[in-house]
Amino acid sequence: MDDNQESVELLKQISRGSRDAFDPFYEKYSAFIFNIAYQVTGNRIEAEDVCHDVFLEVFQKSSQYQPDKGSVRAWLAVKTKSRSIDRLRKKKPLLIEKLEKLSLQEVQGVDLQFLKEIENHLIHDALVHLPKPQREAIYRSYFAGETHKEIAEIMKKPLGSVKSLIRYGLRNLRKQKSIFNWTESSGGGNRHEL
Predict the structure, then answer these.
(1) Where does the RNA polymerase sigma-70 region domain start and stop, copy by copy (predicted)?
(2) Which of 57, 63, 138, 56 is nearest to 102 (CA)?
(3) Of 11, 27, 19, 13, which is closest to residue 66 (Cα–Cα)?
């Protein structure tokens, strides 16, 4: 029995209510799910919550898995990514944390994919309120996927100026309370003033 067949069999048993099948399934995939959730959210606590949500859904709705649409691993990856993005939408301050982390490094791979998959219209609406040079630098960096060096060449500005435009633009985005829920990431109800 190959690895995927073993997982399919465990899912069948879980769908019949077997807790004995759930334990090895959890052991097999918990690190995999956590890593995806952490890559998307960039936050350990949020990633743990996503893991909990995904495994709860697996336990309650394991019959949703369709073998003809891909492996169990791929099904879990899609489910985890989707739950992670949903969680970011609900906890919008995490979005700004993610953008700030990305501003310190070149945008590539998972980070660029993350930014393309979240609600781009939310950021686009916020960008309208920024000064044009900040808006252009942020757009080029996060939506066009251009490096800071490429942006500097296109905008005919020094590299340091481009980095400053992005940094100040992100600060200005933080001030736009209309696009963020100003609650703590832990879900507390206290409003924060910047």
Answers:
(1) 25-92, 126-175
(2) 138
(3) 11
- CA nearest to 70, candidates 8, 113, 12, 117: 8
Alpha helices in 42-185 (DSSP H): 44-61, 72-90, 93-103, 109-117, 120-127, 132-142, 148-155, 159-174
Backbone φ and ψ for 159, nearest 5 degrees, come out as -55, -45
The answer to the question of residue 185 being in a domain is: no
Q: Within 13 Å, how many C-alpha atoms sit on residue 102's CB side? A: 28
Tokens of 10: 């465990």
Let me know if residue 171 belongs to a domain.
Answer: yes
Residues 37 and 100 occupy one common structural domain? no
Copy the structure tokens of residue 145.
């996927």
Domain that holds residue 120: 93-179
Reading the block at residue 65, the tokens are 């898995």
Q: Note the pLDDT tens digit of each residue in 117-133.
A: 444 555 666 777 888 99
- Tokens describing residue 77: 């990856």
Query: What CATH number is associated with residue 145?
Result: 1.10.10.10
pTM: predicted TM-score of the whole model, two decimal places: 0.49
